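Cross-posting from the modeling subforum.

Setting up a comparison between two proteins and wanted a second pair of eyes on the formatting. Protein 1 (sequence, then C-alpha cells):
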Amino acid sequence: MTTAASHPPPDTPSRRLTVDEDGLRLDIWLARRCAPLSRSRLQALIESGHVTVDGCPAAPRTRIRLGQQVCVTVPLPAPAVPEPEPLPLDVVFEDADILVLDKPPGLVVHPAPGHEGGTLVNALLHHCDDLSGVGGVERPGIVHRLDRDTSGLLVVAKHDAALNALAAQFQEGRVSKVYLAIVHGCPVPPAGRIETTIGRHPVDRKRMAVDPPRGKRAVSHYAVVEPLGALTLLQVRIETGRTHQIRVHLAHLGLPIVGDPVYGSRSRDRNLAGCPPRQMLHAAELSFDHPTDGRRLAFRRPPPPDMAGVLARLRR
C-alpha cells in the first residue's frame, strides 16, 4: 500500500525520467538511473510518496513499462534542532537584549557534524528560555563566532532586533575586537598593518589561504606587547572577520601562533616545554554599541589558565 504523493516545496530537487526498459521493478530500475542514491534510500522515497509513475504514487515492486514518466523528489534535509544542555557559561554581561560571555578553549560555538551536542548553542538554549529561533534554529542568537580552540569574548543576541542591529555594526566595522596571541618569532617592525585577501585554499578545502583566486579583503593590525625570548606576545586588532583571519595572517608573516595545529609550526612547538595542544589565541577585548539604547559597551578579559600558564613559564 502506498501513501498519497504530496507536493514538494518549491526548492526541493526533483528528477523526471522516462522509462527505457520494460517489466523491471521500479526500485531496481531507479537504482540504475539515480546514482548515488542507494536502492534502500530509493525504496524509502517511494514508500513515503516521493516517487510517482505517470503522476500516481507507486510501490517499490511496481513493474514499469516503456515510455512511462517517473518523477523522483528528494526532500531537503530538515535542519537539526539543537537541544538545551545545562553547560556552564562564564557570563560577563547580560540584559534583556544581549549576553556577553567569555568562551573557554575547546568549546564549539554551534552544532556541526561531529559536534552535534555540547556546544555553546546548546548551553545558550538552556540559559535563555526564549532564544530558540533567534536568527535561525541552527545558530540561535549567534552574531559572530570563535574557533573551537580560541578563547575569549563573544556577544549573543537575545532577539531578532538585537541580532540585526549587531550584525549591521559588524558589517560596518563599528565593532572593535582585540586579540592576544603568542607567536613564534618577533615582527619587524614591532607594529604594522596586514591587508590581503583570504579565501579557501585551492587544494586543501579545510584550510584558508592568503590571496586565493576568489578571496575577500582582510585587514589586521598587530603590535608587540611583550618579547618572550624566541616568542612574542602580540596584540591583534581586526577590521574584518574572515575565517581564521588572524591565524592565516600571522602565519603569512612568518609568525605562526604557538600551538596552531593547522597554520602553526609543529617542529617549533615540540621544542616548547608544557605547551598545551591548542592555538594560543584569546579574544581579550570587545566593544560595540548597545543594540537598543546605543551606549558604547566595552569588555576586557584576561587569558584563560592554560594561556596564562604558558606566559608565566616564558617569563620565568
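Protein 2 (same layout):
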Amino acid sequence: MSRAPWRERIALVNSWLLAAVFFCIPVQVAPAYLLSAAMLLLWMIEGGLGRKLRELAAEPLVWIVLGCYGVLLLSLLWSDDRGWGWQAMQRHRFFLLFPLYYSVARREHFGRYVAAFLASIALCEALAFYNWARLHVWPGLPEGIQVEKSVGDTAPFVDRIFYTPVLALAGYLAGHRLLFDATTLRRRLLYGGLLATTTLNLLIAGGRAGMVGFLALLVLLAFQRFARRPLVAGSVAAALVAAVLVGGYHGSSYFKSRVDDAIDTFVHYRERPESSVSLRLVYALNALRIYAAHPLLGVGVGDYPKEYERVNAVHTPQWEPAWNPHNYYLFVLTAAGLPGGIALALVLGYPLRRRGPADGRERIRRALPVLMITICLFESYLLRSNVSMMYMLFTAALWRGASSADRAPAAGPLPRPG
C-alpha cells in the first residue's frame, strides 16, 4: 500500500483528536494535554514536515501568538523571581500548542469541532441543572458531579470563573446556528433549545464576567442578523439584554444576589474589602500604579506578586496582596510593558480586524475576539487554562485555510454536524 493513504488516515485521526480536545473545553484540561501529545506524535509520523512548517510560517496568527508568548518569556530576563515567572509561563501552554492545532485543523471539519464543543456543553448543562435542583428544589437527591470551590457553584467540572465564558461562546454559537444555519424545524428547535438552556445555565452559574461577555455577544448577534437595519438591530439588542437581565434578576435569587452585591460593593468598595468586586477595583488601581512606574518593559513576568505586595503595603494595606490583577491587559502591561501591550493587542485585535472569506464563519471570527476582549477586562483569562484553550482552538480552526479561501469563490454555508 502506498504511503499517501496512510498519511491521509493520520490526518483524519488527528482531526478527530482535535474534535476531542474541543470536547474538553468545559470539562478538564488534563485530557486535552494527553490528546495534544498524541496529536503531535501522529503529526510528526505523518511526515511532510517541510510543507507543514512552510504553511505555519505563512500564517500571521502563528507568529502573533508565538510572539506574544515570546515577549512574556523574554521578560523573565529582568525578573528576580524566575521560579514564579516560569509558573506563569506554564499557564500559557496553549499559546505553544496553537501551531499544532492550526496545522491539524481541517477546514471542512469545522462543523465537527463545533458539534463536539456544543455536545460537551449540553452534557455539562444537564449536570449543572441537576446540581441546581439538588441545591434548591429537592435536597434529598443523590449527590451529582459538582465542582467544589464556591458555595452555590452548580457547574460539574470547573468553577464559574472558567465555566461562564465557555457558556457565553456556546450560547452565541447556538444562536448563530439558529439564525444562519438551521434550515429545518428540527434543527431550529435543537439550537433554540440549546440557546435557552445556556442562558438559564448562565443565570444560575453566577459568573459575572461570563454574563457580561454573553450580553456583548447577544448584541453582536443582533447586529449581525440585521446588518442592513441598524435601528432594528439596536432595538432587538436592547430587548434581548433587558430580557436576560430582568428575567434573571426576578427569576433567580442567586443571580439577584450577585447583581445586588456587585452594585453595593462598587459603590462602597472601601467598606467591603473582602468582596470580589472591591478586590478587583483595588487590584486594578495597584496594577496601574505598578505599570506607571515601569511603563517601558514592565517588572517582568516573575516579579508581579512581589511588586504588588510592595505597592499594596503602601497604598491599600487593609487588602490582602494578590498574584494576579484579574485583568489580562494589566497583567501583560505590568509584566512586559509596552511590547507586551502591543503583542496582546495583536493577539486579540488582529483576528477581529482581519478580513476573511464570506464562508458562513466570518461572523464567528468576529465574535470570538469580541468575547475575549470583553472578559479579559474582568480576569486574566488567557492565563486561565480552559478559556485560553478555547480561544486558541477556535482561532486555529476558524482561520485554517482562510488565506487561500480569500482568493477562491465563497465556500458556502457551514457544514452540518454529522
